[in-house]
Amino acid sequence: MYQTITSAYIEELRQILGNEYVLVDDEALQKYGHDETEDLQFNPEVVVKPETAEQVSQILLLCNKHDIPVTPRGAGTGLSGGALPVYGGIVLSTERLNKIIEIDERNLQATVEVGVITQVFQEAVKEKGLFYPPDPSSRGSCFLGGNLAESAGGPKAVKYGVTKDYVLNLEVVLPTGEIIWTGANVLKNSTGYNLTQLMVGSEGTLGVITKIVFKLIPYPPYDLLMLVPFFNAEKACQAVSAIFKAGVIPSCLEFMERDAIDNTLKYVDINFPIKDEVKAHLIIEVDGNDMDVLMKDCEKISEVLEQFECDEILFAESANQKDELWRIRRAAGEASKAHCIYKEEDTVVPRAELATLLKGVKEIGSKYGFRTLCYGHAGDGNLHVNILKDDISDEDWNHKVPEGVKEIFDLCIRLKGTISGEHGIGFVQKEYMNIPFNQTQLELQKGIKKLFDPNGIMNPGKIFV
Ligand code: 2HG
Ligand code: ZN
User: Ligand 1: distance of its center to the CA of 177 in Å?
Assistant: First the structure.
């Protein structure tokens, strides 16, 4: 169905980009053949590194004319295989599209290229007193473009929203080579279909995003962080919705079950004594402009937590202690990966259903014989379920465990949730797309894909089976 890359195509790519930015050596093909998803490896035939939208346009024109698959790639930190070139062809790395073009302090906006590292952007706007809240655990290495492609979230989403909530306008290169803007640099827009939001979460299947206009907000100067141990993990989950019901919106509300904490502590090599009876932690942060208000919020939260039989609440006393707690939470995924091969599920339900989801996940794990490490953005009802391979046979891992995953996803839908909150569908979840969507819903989505990309060159093998 797709053409393989010949030396003539390589020559054309070199004409467009220069020799240095067209890689065909084994080391490069190996490096760009995996992301952070499980242990999957699909090598591309060639890796290209454009520096401008015009170069991206010329590459896509070539691909479209000759039926060559092209897989856009950010930093390769994705967890659903979105950047894997499963049909070979070209990996288009956005690492040279890495300029912060403008931070517009008059309008509280910024225009950036897609290969800017999320944390670099956050720090650049913070210097001007501004805040870009989406902060995936991998923010020190992931790219803004990848965050957009996968509709990434992170701990701050519970109060501030996810990546999509900060995107105003996008420059996109279509498979035809045309370069378009999707909207306008405005906070309100009721002008036609919302192409901007259609691109967000489209996982590189519709075109290549090259520039982003973000909205920003003023940086909240104060925060307080509390660590709350629980003797019962389900009770910890039940406490979550009660906090909001009491009238407080924390800036982060994270959950880690005991096994996930222990596994992470080993990985980050931090000595953090925890009582044997503790089965889960909530990490709760409040932020804002007024310390007195934050103290009152914490009092209210504490009153709620006591009703759910928590142990003594620890308030982080210094910036160091806060950093350490966040380091533990942010390393949970990497720690699972370091422990053994694992499947990363990104379940999400309405937040008051979180305890039911956790209970169900554990029951399904027992039924199918797998162990899970659970942690995530409890305030969003977003539970990361890491299924560990441990000593499960390859046969069971490939056939029995996916049955269990299907049951977990069925449960999410019964609870009015869905199968991915912030990691995307990509390659590894596409076989489950018939769980949240029926035929009509899938056909509508596939129709959109066909309209943008009739030849199917953009990141084939993703989202849909
Ligand atoms: C987490 O909650 C993230 O730890 C991991 O979802 C994903 O930052 C990432 O790449
Ligand atoms: Zn997460």
Answer: 33
Contacts of 83 (CB under 8 A, 6+ apart): 35, 71, 72, 73, 74, 76, 91, 146, 204
Name all domains of the chain by residue range, CATH numbers in brackets: 7-96 (3.30.43.10), 100-218 (3.30.465.10), 222-330 (3.30.70.2190), 340-423 (3.30.70.2740)
Residue type, 137: S
Q: Which two tokens stand for residue 98?
A: 């890495």
Ligand 1 binding pocket includes 386 (Cβ within 6 Å): no
Ligand nearest to the Cα of 380, by number:
2
What's this model's pTM, rounded to 2 decimal places? 0.97
User: Ligand 1: which of 35, 138, 343 to mutate, judged by most atoms within 8 Å of the beta carbon?
Assistant: 138
Query: Is residue 37 lining ligand 1, measured as CB closer than 6 Å?
Result: no
Q: Is 137 in the pocket of ligand 1 (CB under 6 A)?
A: yes
Asked if residue 136 has its Cβ within 6 Å of ligand 1, the reply is: yes
pLDDT in tens, 342-351: 999 999 999 9
pLDDT tens string 304-322: 999 999 999 999 999 999 9
User: What is the spatial distance between Cα 309 and Cα 237, in angstroms, rounded to a whole number?
Assistant: 12
Query: Which atom of ligand 1 lies nearest, measured to the CA of 346?
Result: 6
Q: Which residue lies with its CA nearest to atom 3 of ligand 1?
A: 137
Is 352 within 8 Å of 241 (Cβ atoms)? yes
